[in-house]
Structure formats: C-alpha cells, structure tokens
Amino acid sequence: MTVAIVDYGSGNLRSAAKAFERAAWEGGHRGRVEVTACAEALAEATHIVLPGVGAFADCMRGLTRLPGMVEALEAAVIACGRPFLGICVGMQLMATRGREHGTHEGLGWINGEVRALAPGDARLKVPHMGWNELMPRAPHPVLAGLGPGTHVYFVHGYGFDCADPGQVLATTDYGGPVTAAIARDNLIGTQFHPEKSQAAGLRLIASFLAWRP
Q1: Catalytic residue among 47, 104, 156, 193
Q2: Distance in angstroms (rounded) separating the CA atoms of residues 171 and 133
Q3: How does residue 146 score in pLDDT terms, banded at 50, 70 and 90?
Q4: From CA 158, how far away is CA 146, in angstroms rounded?
Q5: Rounded to 10 degrees, what is the CA torsion of 209, 68, 187, 32?
Q6: Topology (CATH level 3) of domain 2-210
C-alpha cells in the first residue's frame, strides 16, 4: 500500500500524514505514506488524498501549477479508479466550479457548486469552525461506524451544493443542512477534517485505507 498525499502548497500536510501513518500502523497496513508534489508519484499510489485549506481559487491555482498533476490525478483517479479522498477544500475542488471571490472551474468530478455558507440562524458565525454532529444519509464503507452522534471537526466558510442529492453521504446542521461528505464510485470527500477529528477521524482514515471500490 502506498498513500500519496498531494502537496500543492495548501493543506495541513503534517497532521494529515501523521494521522494516515497512525491509522495504517494500527490497521496493520504495510506500505508507506508519502507527501508529494510529484505527478509521477501518483502512478504508483494505491490511495490518493487531496487535502486543502484556504480559498477555492488559490487551491485550484496551486494544483494546476504543479507540472502534470491534474493530468496525473485524472489518470490515476478517474481512468484507473484508485481510491481517492478529498479533505475540506480538497473535497470542494471535486466540484464543477467554486463561487468564492468570483467563479472558478474545479476538477468537475462531482457535479455541483461551492457556495458561501448562509446559516439560517443569524447567531451562527461564518466561517463554521468547531465540532459538529455528523448526520449520515447513506451507508458507505468509509463511514462505517460513524453514525448519528459522531462529532467531527469543521473549519470552512463555503459549502458543496451537490447537484445529485444521492451523492451526499452525510450532512451536518449549521443553521440548516450543510454537506459534510460526498461520494461516487471510487471518490469520497469530507468537508470536515478527519486528521483533526480524533478517534472518529482515525476510524474513517482506517476505513478508507481498507476500501476497495
């Protein structure tokens, strides 16, 4: 097993790598976790992770500036079907487009748009930051064991408005439903940060490493 965590200058890479290393070790998975900015490394990866923090456009720009990286992602994830996990803005980049500070094209892997959060409760601040309950909407191997009552950690001011409700795995309540996890085929994304979500996050990472879509 080789996990490639894509380094495009926007992500909590050290925390993510440590969480994946711990989950791999505890799950008995042999192999390595590699933080990489090299497109060629994705050809050898069994699992690919795209983290991300910051603005949608900045993250997409950073990704496209890495020589051959978008093409390598398309080849490994879309053409070859390797298990893929997008985290926070890494999940948002899977969208058709983002509406943060203008309109910006995403990877287009899951039809939808990333839009500013607009909580129905005026007392709630944006960005949404802290622990919130995960509300699963559909079963999925990567979310196994993370039922209602599970709390995970969020930091975001924009949310994924998914065109197909059937691709929304889980929501959270922040003045109304907010997309917390999406999936199709070999792709899964979480708006929350598994690497910051303690035991629940490690369980999700372990399930992702064991996932064979």
Answers
A1: 193
A2: 9
A3: very high
A4: 23
A5: 0
A6: Rossmann fold (3.40.50)
Domain spans of the chain, in order of start: 2-210
Q: Determine the pLDDT at residue 11.
A: 72
Whether residue 193 lies in the annotated active site: yes
Q: What is the pLDDT of residue 195?
A: 96
Give the three-state DSSP class for 58.
helix
Q: Of 29, 47, 104, 195, which is the active-site residue?
A: 195
Give the separation between CA 118 and CA 143, rounded to whole angstroms: 26
Does residue 195 carry a catalytic annotation? yes
Catalytic residue from among 88, 104, 113, 162: 88
Q: What is the DSSP letter of 43?
A: G
Q: Does pTM surpass 0.85?
A: yes
| 121: DSSP letter | S
**Separation between Cα atoms, residue 93 and residue 3, nearest integer Å:** 19
**Distance from chain centroid for Cα 22:** 18
* Residues 207, 144 contacting (CB under 8 angstroms): yes
State phi, psi for 105 to the nearest 5 degrees: -75, 140
